Predict the structure.
Amino acid sequence: MSKKLLIAGNWKLNGEKKDISFIKNLLKFHSKKLTKKVDILICPPFTLIDKFCQLTQRSNIEIGGQDCSENETGAYTGEVSANMLNDLNATYCIVGHSERRLYHNENNNLLNKKILNIQKNNIKAILCIGESLSDRKQSKTLRVLGNQLKGALKNNINPNLLEIAYEPIWAIGTGLVPEYSDIEEVHDYISKKLEDFYGKRSKKIRILYGGSVNAKNVFSILSLNNVNGALIGGASLKIKDMKSILKQFI
Ligand code: PEP
C-alpha cells in the first residue's frame, strides 16, 4: 500500500511574530494538487501555534507542537499539555526528539506517557527514534531502535494516531546523511517491528526520515522503500527552501 507522504518542518527554538509571513506565503503556494500527494505539517515554537492554527484553519496545512507535557494539568511550571495543543487546533505533536532526550533527559517511559496523553487528546504523535554515531560504529543501530520502539510504544498506544521519525542523531544538523541502503535497512526494520506490534493496523503508520534533508536530497530519500515522509529542521525554516522541497512532489 503506498502511503500519502508527510513532510514536516521542525522549527526548534526559531520563529517570531514576523515569521507569520512564512505561513501566509505557504498558504498561497500550496494547492490541491500538492496536498493530494503530501500532508504538510509545520511545528513552530508554542508561542506561534495559536496564530498559525488560526491562519491555516481553512487549508490543508497542519500545525503541531514540538513536544508537550506528560501531565494533563496542575502544578508543572513552564509546561504545555496535549489538551492545550488540542484547544488551539494543533493536530500533531513531535515526541522524543534527540534534543529532548539529550538536554532534558527524556527516556522511553516518559515518552510513552507523553504519547498516551497526546493520543487521548486526539492528536497524532510523531515518535522520534535514532542511534548515535557510536551505536552505528558498534553495529548496535537496530538494537537501539528496537528498544526505543518497545519502550515508548507499550501500554496500548493507538497506531491510528502514530507516526515514527527515524532520525540518526549524527545526521541532525550536520549535513551528513546515511547511505541510502542504510536508511532502507532501518525503515524496513521499523516497518517489521510495527507489524509485530500492531499487525495490519501498522500499515497506516508513516515512517519519516529526518537528518539533513534538503531540496537536493529529499526526492531521492523519499523514493526509498518504506520512507513515507521527512522531518526537516534547518531546511524548513526558510519559505524558499520549503517551496523547493514541496514542489518536487507536485
Ligand atoms: C530535526 O531537527 O529533526 C532535523 C532533522 O534537523 P535537520 O533537518 O536540520 O538535520
Notes: Residues 5-237 form a domain with the TIM Barrel fold (CATH 3.20.20.70). The chain has one domain: 5-237.
